[in-house]
Structure formats: structure tokens, C-alpha cells
């Protein structure tokens, strides 16, 4: 704002008049002593209040003194220098934090697996597998703050670093697997957690990864019906293969068992025949030795034993001799055994 020459003179006169009135008001008055007392009291009260602070059981406090890190304090009542010399930053280090990918949890529902998800969520979850298929993967990274100082000052945005590292590692893990292995999720969570923790340790962010949880691993919405049909066909194929293997495992062992049983029986029969032949040969050799020592006696004994064996089979015998008048019964219906029994009774 600009003023004319007369305007500047009028404003200067008003200012000088105000100064003279203030000078007359404070003339003879000593206000510095009570003002100093009030200021000193306020400063002392402010300093007393700022001497102590409380750290909750689930918290840790990072203390900076004139901008320089001096330590991390645990739960309880702690001391610090007042007047802004010490600055305290509290973090909940016992709380498990999490970052969600491919969905967002709200107070009403979880927006995951829905066809109307935002493009930003689809950009997070759609991934290329090792066999050049596309999978829709939603997961959660759970972590804790292991070093509050590093979490606060090692990076400008630790949450963004966690999200970037997690997404890169999950895409790497998914890209190393075939699409069916991705849907089965076998070993993906443990491998992802180790890889993410390794990268975060290299960045020295003061973060400990607790767990990786895969919420939904599905084919994209547009091809999901076709993919379900393919899966149904594969399951039917696996069912038929399992049935054939079950039948095979039942029939083949039975056939092998019967074959082994037949072979064992044949071997046993062969061994029995060999043993019998050897026994008969030994018997013949012993008889031959007796025959050579006493031919006549042995011949008679063999004849009698042979006839006895033959008569054992006959129940009745009659000798017809033209020189004998009538029939000569050698023994009756009882047979030779009956005759012997009768003779023994007599």
C-alpha cells in the first residue's frame, strides 16, 4: 500500500503520540520482577513436567538428544532432559503388524477374490507362473519392529519398503513354480518368509518377519470356469489311475504268492521223491549186502515177505488142484489178517 506525502506525516505523528502515552503509563512502575517470576515459574513447571515419561509394556522408546541417538528405553517410568533437549519416539514393538496384498480388510468385509476389485489390487495379485500361466495370489505379511531406531531412521518409508520387497519376492517364488504347484502352496510360505527376511536384513530396517499367509491362490476370474473343468478332469484321471494301481497291487501280489507257493510245492515234491529214491536205493544196497552173505536164506525171506504183502490184499483165496478131491480153502473171508488174529487168540 502506498501513501502520499501528507499521509506519511500523519501516521508518524500518531505513532509518536502512542509511544509517549506508553512511556507515561510505565513511568515509575517496575514490572520486570513479577514478569520474571511468572516466566521462571512457567519454565520450571514445563521442565518438571518434561523430566519424566512413561513407556507402555508393549512399547519401546527411542531417545534423541539434540538430534543424536542416545539409546532405546524399555517399558516403565523413564527420565529425559527437558526443554526439547531430549526427544522421545515411542513405538509398539510387541504388536504384530501386517501388510495386505491383493485385497484390503475393512470393518465390514474382506475385499478378496471379488471380480469387482480395484485395478490396483489386481496389479498386486496377478502373477506369471513358471509355465507361463497367470495366478491370482492374495497374501499377508505379518511382522514386528525388532529395532525401533532403525525402523524410524534407516528409511523414510518402512511400510513401502516392506511392500516392495514382499511383492518382489512373492513374484519370484510364484515364477519359479508351475501353476499347479502354486495352487497347492507347498513350501511357498516358508520360502517367502526366509527370502523377505534376508532382503530386509540387508537393508537393515529393524524388521522381523513373523509369517507369510496366503489367503487365496486362484486362477484369474475370466478363466476360472474353464480351469475348474480342467481340474475336474485331472482329478477324474487321478482317480482312475489310483483305482488301477489299487487293482494292480491286489492282483499281482496274489499271483506272485501263488507262483511262489507252486514253486515251493514243486521243490518240496522233488526233494521228497529224491529222498524216497535214496531211501529205496539204500534199502536195496543193504538187502544186496545180506543176499551176498546168505543168498538162500535171503531169497527165501524175500519170497515170504513178498507173498505176505500180496496176501494182505486178498480177502479170500481157494486153490483148485485136479489131484485133490474137493476145494482146499487156504483162508476164509477174514483174509490173512483174520487168520493171524485167530491164531493169536488161540
SSE layout and pairing:
Blueprint: H1 5-26, H2 32-49, E1 52-55, E2 60-65, E3 68-73, E4 76-79, E5 86-91, E6 97-101, E7 104-105, E8 110-111, H3 119-125, E9 126-128, E10 134-145, H4 148-153, H5 158-175, H6 179-184, H7 188-203, E11 207-218, H8 224-293, H9 295-311, E12 317-319, E13 328-331, H10 335-345
Antiparallel strand pairs: 1-4, 2-3, 2-5, 6-10, 7-8, 9-10, 10-11, 12-13
Helix pairs in contact: 5-7, 8-9
Explain how this protein is built.
The protein has 10 helices and 13 strands. It is of the alpha+beta class. Among the domains are: 40-95; 97-106 and 118-218, 2-Layer Sandwich (Tetrahydropterin Synthase, Chain A); 294-345, no CATH class. Strands 6, 9, 10 and 11 form a 4-stranded antiparallel sheet that branches. A 3-stranded antiparallel sheet has the order 3-2-5, with no helix packed on it. β9 and β10 (134-145) form a beta hairpin. Residues 1-11, 111-115 and 335-346 have low confidence and may be disordered.
Amino acid at each position: 500500500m502506498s501513501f502520499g506525502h501528507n499521509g506519511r506525516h500523519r501516521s508518524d505523528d500518531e505513532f509518536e503520540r502512542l509511544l509517549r502515552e506508553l512511556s507515561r503509563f510505565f513511568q515509575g512502575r517496575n514490572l520486570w520482577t513479577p514478569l520474571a517470576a511468572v516466566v521462571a515459574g512457567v519454565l520450571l513447571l514445563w521442565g518438571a513436567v518434561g523430566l519424566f515419561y512413561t513407556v507402555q509394556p508393549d512399547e519401546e522408546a527411542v531417545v534423541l538428544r539434540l538430534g543424536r541417538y542416545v539409546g532405546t528405553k524399555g517399558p516403565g517410568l523413564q527420565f529425559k532432559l527437558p526443554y526439547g533437549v531430549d526427544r522421545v519416539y515411542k513405538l509398539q514393538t510387541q504388536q504384530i503388524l501386517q501388510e495386505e496384498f491383493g485385497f484390503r480388510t475393512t470393518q465390514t468385509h474382506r475385499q478378496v477374490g471379488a471380480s469387482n476389485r480395484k485395478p490396483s489390487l489386481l496389479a498386486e495379485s496377478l502373477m506369471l507362473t513358471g509355465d507361463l500361466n497367470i495366478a491370482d495370489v492374495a497374501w499377508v505379511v505379518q511382522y514386528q519392529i525388532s529395532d525401533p531406531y532403525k525402523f524410524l531412521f534407516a528409511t523414510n518409508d518402512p511400510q513401502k519398503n516392506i511392500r516392495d520387497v514382499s511383492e518382489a519376492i512373492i513374484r519370484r517364488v510364484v515364477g519359479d513354480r508351475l501353476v499347479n504347484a502354486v495352487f497347492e502352496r507347498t513350501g511357498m510360505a516358508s520360502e517367502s518368509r526366509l527370502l523377505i527376511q534376508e532382503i530386509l536384513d540387508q537393508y537393515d530396517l529393524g524388521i522381523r518377519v513373523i509369517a507369510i499367509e496366503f489367503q487365496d491362490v486362484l486362477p484369474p476370474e475370466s478363466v476360472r470356469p474353464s480351469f475348474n473343468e480342467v481340474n475336474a478332469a485331472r482329478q477324474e484321471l487321478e482317480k482312475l489311475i489310483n483305482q488301477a494301481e489299487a487293482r494292480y497291487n491286489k492282483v499281482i501280489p496274489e499271483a506272485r504268492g501263488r507262483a511262489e507257493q507252486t514253486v515251493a510245492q514243486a521243490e518240496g515234491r522233488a526233494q521228497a521223491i529224491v529222498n524216497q529214491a535214496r531211501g529205496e536205493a539204500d534199502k536195496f544196497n543193504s538187502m544186496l549186502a545180506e543176499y551176498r552173505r546168505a543168498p538162500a536164506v535171503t531169497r527165501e525171506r524175500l519170497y515170504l515177505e513178498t507173498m505176505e504183502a500180496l496176501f494182505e490184499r486178498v480177502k479170500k483165496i481157494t486153490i483148485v488142484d485136479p489131484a485133490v478131491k474137493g476145494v482146499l480153502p487156504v483162508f476164509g473171508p477174514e483174509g490173512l489178517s483174520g487168520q493171524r488174529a485167530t491164531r493169536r487168540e488161540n
